[in-house]
Protein 1
Amino acid sequence: MEKIINSVNLTKIYGEKETSVTALDNITIDFKENQFTAIMGPSGSGKSTLLHCLAGLDRPSSGEIFLRDQDISTLNDKQLTKIRRDSFGFVFQAFNLIPTLTAEENITLPASIAGRKPDMDWVKTVVETVDIGDRLTHRPNELSGGQQQRVAAARAMATKPEVIFADEPSGNLDSKSSKELLAFMKSVVDELNQTIIMVTHDPFAASFAQRVVMLKDGKVASDLNGPTQEEIVSEVTALTNI
Amino acid sequence: MFGFTKRPLFLIAWKNLKTYPVRIFLTTSSIILGVAVIIASNIFSESNKSAFDNLFSGIYEGVDLVVQPIQEDFAEGFSGDGGQGPISFEVKKIPDEKINEIQNLPSVKAAWGEVLGFAQFIKIVDGETVLISNGFAPTFGAAWDTNSYAQQWSLVEGEPPTNTKEVVMDVVTAENHEFSVGDRVTVLAGATPASFTIVGIAEFANVGAPGGATFALFEFRTAQKLLDSRGEVDLINVVIENNFDINDVKNEITNLDPENLNVINAQEAAAEQADSIKQGLDFFNTILNVFAGIAIFVGAFIIQNTFRILLLQRTKELSLLRALGTSKRQIYRLVISESLFMSVIGSGLGIALGIGLAVAVKEGLQYFEFGLPDGPLVLTTEAAITGLIIGITVTILSSLLPARKASQVSPMEAIRDSVSTPRRKSLFMRLVFGSLISVAGFGMLFGVLYDFLDLPTLSSLQQVGFGAGVIFVGISVITPSITKPFVFLFDKAYNIVFGILGKLATENSKRTPRRTASTASALMIGLTLISLANVITTSFKAQAESLISEVILADYQVSASNVFVSPGIPTGLSEELLELDEVTKLSRTRATVVGYNQRPLILGAVDETVFDLVKTDDISGNRNDFLKKDAIGILKQTAEREELFVGDEVVLTIPEEGERTFTVAYIFDWTTQPPAEFFVLLENNTFFADESLDTELYFNVNKKTPEVEEKINAIVDEYPGVEVRDEDGLVEEANNQIQLLLNVIYGFLSISIFVALFGITNTLSLSVYERTREIGLMRAIGTYRKQIRRMIFIESSIIAIFGAVLGTGLGIFFAWSLIQTLADEGFTVFAVSISQTALWIGISIIAGVIAAILPAIRASRQNILEAISYE
């Protein structure tokens, strides 16, 4: 498998001088195409910061980020916005949808703001996969939390992005909805050849991923390939106890 | 270490304001403006009043008594300064010898005569003759006082005039038009212009020139000759000997010729003259105050809106206070005390701005040479207190409802996350109430127009106005409930033109219909008034146009170019025009003041041809009889008023002619502005022959070609102060006058639009604040900053269009009702200027976009991570 996005000596420091905090400490890491990766770690380990930097939402203090060999860490706001729009998809923990737009309008929003006609065949496929076909004309406040997250996931995929970034996507869901969403995310990687990088603190959620990267104090602590939920739990426990 | 205060809420209120000065500005911006206009208009009129007081007491500086001629009874009401104006009538003057008689009284130290009349400086610029005047201010000629007690005029440089070829110019005219001692200048006095040498530049009572008037000062005898006062003076100034009582001297002088001399105390005369001018200024002040009132009314809307917005943003803080055990009542008081602080600061700033505004207006007027007397700016304590009270009252009243609402905040809000969206109440009741109010208004209004309802004690015009006011209130109540349907109207268009951004913007304005509506309402007020003024004046213009083409049958009309400054048309002009082969028919009109039933009345003299050149309607009698000797024609209205009928005898007192008896031969309607009330034929009445001036000329030509026009212009150009116009010219002139008025009204009403802008800015700021997460999300998934800004601009344009369209619609409707009501007064034309209407809607949209600049920039710079992170 080809690497699709990678960081080289990525460092992120918040604040100035005495009050500064190193969130990411010289991280060099590759992410493979067509893979479901979970990033885990205790609070303050820098997992969200890593995701934000990779996704072009935050800027590294030093080091580079490459998207298919293009250095995106030096781009200006406009260029970065275009990359987010055309090459990335996003699922956040909450508030994923514009309340005034219907589910369908939300799904096609990235294409709309790009002024493009969405690929309707692809959108149809995505909508079928996430099983929200009957809710398309509804507004977010008429959807359940699980349905809202599935619409968000559909939105993230609608432009056939290079990478989908998910930040605690199941964090606000009950266990049933959570399981459905994660199963769906796994299936889009397996069946629709997508790439997902997900931040989570939940070992159950991480167990859906093919690879689990553990961070601690801004550094990669371990990198597990296809771990079971038990393996993840023991690794997390080990990390927290050190 | 720990501070303790007995009034913690007062402290919080104060700290809040200290921490957020921008809030004070946003909230009180409209009050600042409103108070500023009140203060400025007050300062302006007070300062002018005091300046005029100074000026007039300056005129009589050192003078104890003023001797005026007693006018014939019928001329009462015409003050004794005659000689100007379109109608030249005889005013009694005082013969020269009276000066000596008065001077010879032992009680009199000095006496000198004054001569005042019309005279105008003329300069030649690039071969064109230019009449010099300052706006509508008069142009005077006067005699230079040689008496050592005379103090009105003092030379700034040069010498006094000593012969018939010399003139002294007032210093303001000299400076403005770059004349200096030694220059030649042409002066138009009486019928013919003549050339003079400027021998001196003089200043009037230390103020330059009074009230913007220009002055040409001649040697005494020359002035008498030029100003139609040979051997006479207009009044005599008297200085009395120290050891005599002023009242005794007054009686002594009166007794010299009690039938002809009126002696008054100089200071009384000053006060009297100043008062009459001050009344005019009071009217101006009233108009300014009306506009200030409109600005404040709009301001009240905006303050209420802004308060609501600011309090919503502080829901958490207030809710925390509630959670900590603050009572609802205390929250209410907290908000009211904040508004009290703000209102005091806002009104204070308003007063300061008002002073600045007054200075600016004064400088502006001076720049345009619209001379008003110089003097210090006066801010009366009363004006300052009035401004303060209005500002504070309006602000606090406007904050009552928002404060009530804020006090209802639940203590739970503090614990909840997410920005709270306002509770949605049904807009249905609003629709019902608003409709009921509007229906009542429409009932009152249409009741007049279709004669089914007549409210007692109100005139039909008042009832229409009242009805319009009620409709306005009703519509204001309805607006929130029609926001959605209104926005729906251009949903589609916006989606097509602006794509998803248009969709988002329209959806957003529908999301908070109340806020959208109240923001739009502020703009609606201004636009209602503007389009009302616009339609009324457009209709006026159309009316004038149709009227002029209907009633002026002549190809050309000649008249004085400015009736305020020029006396009329020298009679030589009509003779010269008649010499042209191309002129086929010409009629002169002259006028003089005569006495009828002990009252003054204008008697006009016309040529027979006038009936072919001006449209007149026969009422009774015969036009041919009017041509007979001793026949008189009377205007319809005058005949009705005086109860005169054909065959009646009319006795007129004619100056220098005595009583003459005429027989009413013809009663008719003169369809334009009539030049007189009684008419006689010019050739039958010799006493008109001596007149050197015509009031108007009408004439036809055999063919209206550019060559003919050139010939006519060549003749007319030799007579300064006289203008020739064809129908187009007359229409244009009427239009110009109306447009000037309209522009002034527009200028003042723009203030209300300006105030409404702040409202839009505030509303959008809140809208952006409430959508922090939404905007952050849009940015995260790839929306450009530019697109975010555009979205806010589109949203703003929706509010602006909403307000502008509603306002324009209402304004046009109100104008239509008004014109319908005035139909009986001869008002028949209703015309809407599409271009002007479109222009103002366009201006509103642009204004809306300008108002959106700050919120748009703020929205586009929002930090994405802060917006999407969930803590």
Note: The first strand of chain B starts at residue 65 and ends at 69.
Protein 2
Amino acid sequence: MLNLLWLAPAFPLAGAAVLALFGSRFPRKLVSLLGVGSIGLAALVSFLVGWSFLASPPPGNAFLLPLWTWMDAGSFRADFGLYLDPVSLLMLVVVTFVGFLIHVYSTEYMRHDDGYARFFAYMNLFVASMLLLVLGNNLLVLYVGWEGVGLCSYLLIGFWYRDPANVRAANKAFLVTRIGDTAFAIGLFLLFTHLGTLDIQQLMQRAQSQWEPGSGLAIAAAALLLAGACGKSAQLPLQTWLPDAMAGPTPTSALIHAATMVTAGVYLIARTQALFRLAPPVQLAVAVIGATTLLMAACSALAQRDIKRVLAYSTISQIGYMFLALGLGAWSAAMFHFMTHAFFKALLFLAAGAVIQALHHEQDMFRMGGLRTELPVVFWSFVIGGSALAGLPLLTAGFFSKDLILWQSWAGPNGNIWFWLCGMAGALLTSLYTYRLIFLVFYGPPKAHVAARPGLAIKLPLVVLCVLSIVGGYADTPPHFGGTPALSNFLNSTLPALEEVHVGPITEVTTALCASLMFAAGFSLAFVLYYRRRVEHPSETALARFWSAGWGFDQLYDGVFVRPFIWLAAVNRNDVVDAAYAGIASAAQECSRVLRLTETGRVRWYASGLALGSAVFLAFVLLTR
Amino acid sequence: MILFWLVAILIAAGVLAGVAARWSDTAPRVICLGALATDFGLCLGLWSGHYPALATIGPPRWFAELSWNWIPQWGIRFHLAVDGLGLALILLTLFLGIMAVLASWRGIQRSAGFFHFNLLWVLAGVMGVFLAVDLFLFYFFWELMLVPMYFLIAVWGYERRIYAAIKFFLFTQISSLLMLAAIVALAVLHQSATGSYSFEYEDLLSMPLAPGTEMLLALGFLAAFAVKLPAFAIHTWLPDAHAEAPTAGSVILAGLLLKTGAFGMLRFVLPLFPNAARQLAPWMMTLGVIGILYGAVLAFAQTDLKRMVAYTSVSHMGFVLLGIFAMNDIALQGALIQMLSHGVSTGALFILAGALNERLHSRDLRSMGGLWDTMPVLSGAGLFFVMASAGMPGLGDFVGEFLVLTGTYRVSPVLAALGALGMIAGACYALRLVQTVFFGPNVHNWRFPDAHWYEWSVAAPMMACLLWIGLYPQPVLNVVRPAIDGIRHQIAVSTLAKR
């Protein structure tokens, strides 16, 4: 059964190829069937593979499916193969299943779009690339998927290409992530040169046996991979592209810019955790980046008025939690939060899409209101997804996964009080901006006319994701409260087990209580501000504008990098080097002009020239003899 | 003997095509396709005949060889031979030749006979360059490429075609004369060492040279090859020639003529002058990196679509130069893959630019925009080739660039990192191209027919080729490996001799 693994990326790839080549001639029903069916089959394959993996685990709890030798250039060799272990299995199942739900949703959401087949071609290609990223046995195969998802992200952000703003957003996303990708590529050169392979398992073994913890090479390699991860996962300082990426169709935002692609950086670090453990300063940097990003993005989420941008900043912030977990060494906690986040964030985006479509593409929350009764399914989706995001204690998935990270931020090997405080502050902000959104959109007086109500293809994925946003948390419940950390145990064969180094004065019980308190505080604050007092206008203070603009990073990069580059390029459009050759050419022409002056046509002038020349020549011969 | 026919068929078909134009306008095109397809078949036969042996036993030095006396008193022979390196490149030559004929099916109406005569003779020259192992013969073919190319630009080019053609001719001719001097000097040195003149590659390989002489002669060869490549600072003929040439001319210039420069370095500079090459390597690699970045930035700034694509060639060929002078097996094979895939991806972009020009009668980026609306198929193909050119993994250019940079990292991590910045710069121009040509609103309200049959028949094989090199380059790598090993062996031997 495990040998069928290659079908998981192959179905979506085939779907993408067929739709790209012939999709424009197919009727819509056939396009839907192909586009959704290919992902459905991929999901089916991944369930079968997963079931067989769990039922009879392969030796070493890992399975390698070699496909072909990609390149064998003398001393360089890279094989194309798929590697399945608990971590990639988790990603595989989440990507295909959530992907399938989002594809189903898209059949209704995109039904009137003239680029229907193109949309599904891109989405299918995305899923294929993502699966390659997740399953690649070799960092180079992973890199193919890595760039492939970037390409699809670019194509889908710019899907409505007629609007130049969308194209600019797409370009920004591609370029900013490309910067990280380039660092990643340099990391690959370094790893290959010093360790002689790019096969992930061998690489990790060789790194552990050849590099001392804290050695310069390990630090450099880990730092370069971290830069790549920051680009893809929109972490500081490469986070600026994600809010603009919301220009894409909402199903795209749900799949690519919330549930799957943006967590690729988390996956990369978890996959190469052995390397990061050899580089303690870099691992600490991961935690610091995560903690800083989660706070900054949460503040920005608080100041947005566009419903999708709130969710975008929220995504950056939640991935910040995952980075924090990775930096703490709580590897499985990061993967757990990845899973629950995929469920509830996809849910929130899909629900937001339903709102946007119901209101004629209105995205400004301050022009919404009172939708609770108009769109009940969407409302409950937001309540469940939002509560999971904010961490409603004991009921929702988000509580358990976030609580694990919060507890590890104190108790874990890299934990300290600062990380713990950052995590708590983040929890407060998360709860505040989530309920701000819900109160603004669903309560108060209705401000916009509901034009369309979601149909079955939209409701069904919402309901399934609602269930998962609640149930998903029970995959891993804290043992201190009598739960079983099933997911952590499952991941333990790949990722090191969670450790509890610091005990007291903060205990797991205090952490959980504090987190619940933060949730309640955020909720109450939002209730007072946006339900009771019903703030009708976004805050216009300097701080709010600063936060709303994402802490000024766009202006900074624009001034420091973008404008100088464009200026430099424009100044040298005609290539200064060519001026040198043009100079030679005009000098030759000038010489020719001057010499032509001697050609007067007068015999006397020629004769005197002849005489003078002969005299000089004779004098030269006689004098130098 | 097969090697003789490879060249002779093209020469003869060229004459025939020139004559046939009197009868019909299509005849020269069909004759061209027939001749090129025949050659292509012959080369595939060579490939498949030798491919199984590569894996098992050590392959012979040459897959096929032909040696006739030509001017015996000066030791000049009509000596053709092909190894994996040459074979890969003549396959590229014939492939792109077929593409070039198809791409100009409608575009060239004026004196089609003379056009196709020139086309086939350039290709014959290029084939000869890849096959000749007598330096005199090599120079003969080197010059044979030049004249028909000059006519292609000067007769069928765009507005500034005369300027571009003269510039192309002067740059190439002046640098070629330096090479000619070096070739003659080599033959004379051989005479003073052994008593007889020789232009034979194998004879000259084993001839010891004094360090100063070696450097001087190496520079003579390098001058010609670096101009053709082109390396930074002597690249300025390229944007003019590429932009002003007709589509087929641009395809052959970018796809093939540039490759002859790189081929010359691999075939002659490294093996004949290994010590000098090693001394020059840091400088040449630096030039390569400057070319990568400088070309990309200039490509980004252009407002003329063909000039933009032309500058991307400067950038891509910078990778080739970097790889050649990194001199290890990874980088050298990467350089070769980069040569092949650049030929295809950039050739395709020039064909795209030609197809757009046929419709818009303009190469100005500002007159484009929103073309996806009216030509989704052609735009989709364009997107594919732009992404190939930007080094998207899974497509050919990525394999080349990755191997070059991996190999370079062993020699100089700094240069590899700077070269990798070319990935970002490459994304800049690629995105700008897509943005200004295909995306955005269709403000000019263009309405055009989408891809014609001859455009499809060009795009599809080129896409397949890039995917093939990108996902399974092994057949290419296996074929060129012995030749690459030979070059490295030559360098290693000279290092030992020096000690």
Note: Chain A has a mean pLDDT of 88.
